From TrEMBL:
<keyword id="KW-0413">Isomerase</keyword>
<dbReference type="InterPro" id="IPR003739">
    <property type="entry name" value="Lys_aminomutase/Glu_NH3_mut"/>
</dbReference>
<keyword id="KW-0411">Iron-sulfur</keyword>
<dbReference type="InterPro" id="IPR013785">
    <property type="entry name" value="Aldolase_TIM"/>
</dbReference>
<feature type="domain" description="Radical SAM core">
    <location>
        <begin position="105"/>
        <end position="328"/>
    </location>
</feature>
<keyword id="KW-0479">Metal-binding</keyword>
<comment type="similarity">
    <text>Belongs to the radical SAM superfamily. KamA family.</text>
</comment>
<dbReference type="Pfam" id="PF04055">
    <property type="entry name" value="Radical_SAM"/>
</dbReference>
<keyword id="KW-0949">S-adenosyl-L-methionine</keyword>
<dbReference type="InterPro" id="IPR022462">
    <property type="entry name" value="EpmB"/>
</dbReference>
<keyword id="KW-0408">Iron</keyword>
<keyword id="KW-0663">Pyridoxal phosphate</keyword>
<dbReference type="InterPro" id="IPR058240">
    <property type="entry name" value="rSAM_sf"/>
</dbReference>
<protein>
    <recommendedName>
        <fullName>L-lysine 2,3-aminomutase</fullName>
    </recommendedName>
</protein>
<keyword id="KW-0004">4Fe-4S</keyword>
<dbReference type="InterPro" id="IPR007197">
    <property type="entry name" value="rSAM"/>
</dbReference>
Amino acid sequence: MILKSHASLHWREQLKQAITQVDQLAERLTLDPQALAAQIHPQAQAGHFALKVPQAFVERMQPGRLDDPLLLQVLPLSAELETPEGYVPDPLQEQAFNPLPGLIHKYRSRVLLTITGACALHCRYCFRRHFPYSDNQPGGQQREAIVDYLQAHPEINEVILSGGDPLSSPDAHLARWMATLDAVPHIKRLRLHTRFPVAIPERIDDDLLAWVKSTRSQLVFVLHINHPQELDARLIERLQALRAAGVTLLNQSVLLKDINDSALVLAELSERLFDAGVLPYYLHLLDRVQGAAHFALSPTEIETLYQQLLSCLPGFLVPKLVREQPEQPSKTPLGWPFSTR
Ligand SMILES: *Cc1c(COP(=O)(O)O)cnc(C)c1O
Ligand code: SF4
């Protein structure tokens, strides 16, 4: 097999060619197909949240290594079939804050708008892996209902496009949303939470930059990079184009066992992010979603790791350690005990 880069293909073509077969992944990474097959669960190649990873992401994996930190993020291990107590299909119970299809209004000043359920890759730890997206997406007529809702809530000054991955949507669709939201006077900021450019850097193309440059609101992209190996030259180049277009770039990570559970790895990630013009924002504790328990760390491991991280970095490169809790009015910060006395 010729190891040819897919960088010259349009992102939609790269997405179509994403790897979904374990054998194909084994071949690409020169792994023994039997050794790989022995590790994964029987439904790995079928169903709603099966193996899916674009070549551009696989190109950043180390050949021949079953323990590669990028491979472990996408490999459907049989450990997913374990069902320890406390791990549930919907850990965040967002339905209670779902006034309209596609809209989650949980925190006072900002709403989450999920415009698509699709992602460029399937991350095995994802808390939305069991989410019924098809029942919860705004169609054309709901655009108006959403605008009415925003008009009626002047306390909302920021709309967050989420998903799935909002950059799975065609640029024409995104441009329409941007124009719609720009027209609400009290919306100051539009934020996109996306892992798409990490999976396929060529998603940042001229069509995207055109709507980015046309918005009246301040634009923030929150990337989702978990390991320094994900930040290659190809991605950094595209991030620079986004920055040149005036976008503020932040990053969030999820703390994941055997992937980034080391202060050195996380410190290197922060350093490399900053080199690329991205500020670390959040380090999330794993959401307790069914199928992801094997990524969890113990409270003691987390405390030790975070204290080491604090000692490795300037304060502005330390991501806030947070947890998402169903009933709280914000993310819950951890590792910063209030001792003002
Ligand atoms: C995380 C989240 C936000 C954004 O929170 P920030 O702390 O502003 O990043 C907004 N709404 C919901 C429902 C969220 O889960
Ligand atoms: S890209 Fe984000 S929403 Fe999609 S599977 Fe990965 S973590 Fe989940």
